Amino acid sequence: MANRALVVLCSCLALPTVYGAEPVFRIQQRAISDTLAPETLPGDFYDFSPDEYWAEPLDSYWVNFSNWVLSQERTQGPRVQWLGQWADQTLSGSTQSLPNNASYLRIGFASETEQGRPTKFEPEARFRLDIPTTRRKLRLVIESESEELIPLEERQRDRQLTQPDRTETEATGALRYLTMIGDAINFSTDVGARLHIPPDAFVRATAQKKWQADEHWRLIAQQRVYYYHQDGWGERTWFAAGRPTFDDWYFRTSSELEWVHRDRKFVAAQIFSLQKQVSNRSTLTPRIGVLGENQPSWRTTSAFADLTWRYRLHSDWVYGEIIPALTFPREERFKDQSSIILRVEMYFSGSIQSSY
Q1: How far is 171 from 142, CA to CA, in rounded Å?
Q2: What is the DSSP code string of 225-271?
Q3: For the segment 296-311, what is each residue's pLDDT rounded down to a tens digit?
Q4: Do residues 288 and 149 make contact, with C-beta atoms less than 8 angstroms apart?
Q5: How far apart are CA 57 and CA 68, in angstroms?
Q6: Which range is least confidently modeled, 50-59, 163-172, 327-336?
Q7: Can you give the pTM of this predicted structure?
């Protein structure tokens, strides 16, 4: 009897193989919240003791200040966004507004240490109100500074400088009309004035083209002609080329030539740079550059080298920068001038569709 029972049991166990049936497995699923609960994670997951997990945070000046700073983005970001939407709808006469306008407000603090000079800690602020209208290719652009009125060398070394070292320029307001030349050249015309008394009227025209030269090289060219009532006319020609290189570095070279009417001379710049996204938070950008002029003859006016380490401190609107730099100016007989910049910057964007 026992032998017959054993034969029947073996036959039952062999049925899945004889008839080709697949075995059935039952997996008991756990909720993610249960799997990642603090009490179920191993002790080495934490860098503090388990009894500190439920401890209340200690109040401090730094904690209170950082919480206040982080709350400003949630408060000021929507205000910048609302201002762009309201002005857009008002100018266009439409009940809808276009997304992704280029309005922004940048507020920061920078500390500069130079050779032979004490450390300085300076506030910085820049803004742009760029309002696209929906019925026409027309924008209202209000900016805190004018690129045309900033010397070429200063523009190229902008991140190396703090606010007291920058040229004083008044805010400008302009109406910008956008159009296309052919299928690939973007053309814009600005008519506006520097916002001071008496106002300084200006007009400028900009043409820009981007194209892919081959599988690797990307090219961009820009030509700008402008006229200011008080400073006269000028022109800028800018060309850049870039491509991916070794180990995820991106190489870029740019050349710029500008006519400065008030000085009756040309100034030029040649910049070489590499950039690498080290992580999703930090970026490295080493650069070298040479600047020159054609008066009294073509000559080098200065050279520089810098390294920018930019780190995203919070979300996509609080950044920190460390920029060590060497400058070799002609007036100092090309003797090296070292400096280092420490900067924290908050970027309030008016984009209607936030990237985060």
Answers
A1: 7
A2: EEEETTTEEEEEEEEEEEEE-GGG-EEEEEEEEEEEGGGTEEEEEEE
A3: 899 999 999 999 999 9
A4: no
A5: 16
A6: 50-59
A7: 0.71
H or E segment and range at residue 5 = helix 2-19
Of 312, 316, 246, nearest in space to 283 by CA: 312
Q: Which two tokens stand for residue 176?
A: 């910008």
Helix (H, G, I), strand (E, B) or coil at 211: strand
What is the Cα Rg of the chain in Å?
30
Please write the tens of the pLDDT for every residue from 129-180: 777 654 457 888 888 888 888 999 999 988 888 888 888 878 899 988 888 8
Q: What is the DSSP letter of 350?
A: -
Distance CA 327, CA 333 (A): 11
Q: How many CB atoms lie within 10 A of CB 191?
A: 13
DSSP, residue by residue, 107-158: EEEEEEEETTEEEEEEEEEEEEEEEE-SSSSEEEEEESS-GGGS-HHHHHTG
